Amino acid sequence: MKKMLVAVLLMLLLFACGKKQDNAKNMEQIQNEEGIPVRQTIVEPSTFLQELTYNATLSGSEESTASAMVSDIITKINAKVGDRVQKDQIIISFPANTPAAQFEQATSAFNSIRTVYERMKRLHDQGAISRQDLDNVETQYQVSKANLAASEQMINVRAPISGIITAMLVNPSEKVFPGKDLFTVASTNGYKAAIMVPESEIGKIKKGMKATATSLEETINGKVSDISLAMDMDSKAFRVEVMFPGINKKINYGVTAEVNIVILSKPNTIVVQREHLVYENGDKYVWLNIGDKAVKTPVVTGLDSSLEFEITSGLNSGDVLITEGINMLNENAKLRVID
Predict the structure, then answer these.
(1) 141-164: buried (b, 16+ CB within 10 Å) or exposed (e) per residue?
(2) Could you give the CA distance from residue 275 to residue 307 in angstroms, rounded to a whole number?
(3) Selection from 272, 280, 196, 206 nearest residue 238 by Cα
(4) Residue 103, Cβ neighbours under 10 Å: how many?
(5) For residue 87, which of 121, 64, 57, 110 has the smallest C-alpha distance?
(6) I need a labelling partner for 301 at 20 to 30 A (CA). Which of 36, 61, 101, 164 fits?
(7) What is the pLDDT of residue 157?
(8) Closest of 194, 220, 226 to residue 208, by C-alpha
(9) What SS3 state is found at 71?
């Protein structure tokens, strides 16, 4: 019984192996009859780009951070991150009796001198006092008015520019000290990226060069606006600023973006992706579709950008370049183009 069972298993095993061989043979036959499946593209001249790539935070093209001028507890915050504010709008308030501001004293002094000034002005209009007497009082009035404004600025911190609140660095009832950053406002007329460029690359970057910034598959265009002449000794790199005009609602301030600076642009060039090249014995080849047959063609490359190569010889506009299925090809293999 056992011998019979073993014999049956052997027969099943041999049958399975034979079936695999038939399947393999059938696949080869299909490729010979219908062609190897490939994708292709028509070669056309394009612009070859050499770029330097960095990561940077996108801030507003103009940013300003307001700081505390007194040591006290915050009584009110009138805006949050993302709010649009106008210049001189009150954002954060401190107590009116903050000792350092002397706001109550300044208010009392201003009200007193204003009353005197208004009375003296009426007397001058009636011819009861001289112009010099009025000027003396007016000077005191203007000084008191300036003192009140300065005191009021200490307890009511205003937006330094119009824009969007991009950072709120304090909370209500929090005690802060002079010099503490409170909030940041970014203008809404564009973005700015500050990148640190190593010494080996800074010579390749020029003011006015085109650049792109990409975040979450959204890309904006800009130009190099400023290049530092001195190396930052902490990072051992040079600070380069890139400005991007306009606003993309899908890109928020403060996000990290990939910034590409175009250091070379060569139009009307045949360009091939690195993965479309085949390397053999130090030479480079591409596969072309010529009459539905695979033809391996030698090419000569020029400039490269790591991902792309300029083709200086061997490939012409209008050639049909095979881009997928390359690893299955052999010379004169029949091709089946798929969409």
Answers:
(1) beebbebbeebbebbbbebbbbbb
(2) 8
(3) 196
(4) 23
(5) 64
(6) 36
(7) 96
(8) 226
(9) coil
pTM flag (> 0.70): no
Instruction: Give the residues across from 296 on adjacent strands.
Output: 287
Could you tell me if 192 and 57 are in contact, meaning their C-beta atoms sit under 8 angstroms apart? Answer: no
Show the tokens assigned to 2.
């056992």
- Phi/psi zone of residue 163: left (φ > 0), alpha (ψ -120 to 50 degrees), beta? left
Distance (Å, rounded) from C-alpha 173 to C-alpha 145?
30
Check if the beta carbon of residue 106 is closer than 8 Å to that of residue 151. Answer: yes
- Which tokens in the block code for residue 192? 């700015």
Q: What are the pLDDT digits (tens) for 85-129?
A: 999 999 999 999 988 888 889 899 999 999 998 999 898 888 888
| Angle of helix 103-125 versus helix 131-155 axis, rounded to 10 | 160
**313 — phi, psi (to 5°)?**
-160, 145
Can you list the domains of the chain with their CATH numbers? Answer: 52-61+188-265 (2.40.30.170), 63-185 (2.40.50.100)
User: What is d(CA 101, CA 151) in angstroms, rounded to the nearest whole number?
Assistant: 5
Token code pair at residue 177: 């000290």
**What number of H helices and E strands is found in the chain?**
4, 22
**Whole-Å CA distances, 274 to 69, 162, 284, 307, 324:** 58, 47, 10, 5, 12
Helix or strand or coil: residue 21? helix
Neighbours of 275 (CB within 10 A): 10
The CA distances from residue 78 to 87, 157, 164, 267, in Å, are: 14, 10, 13, 53
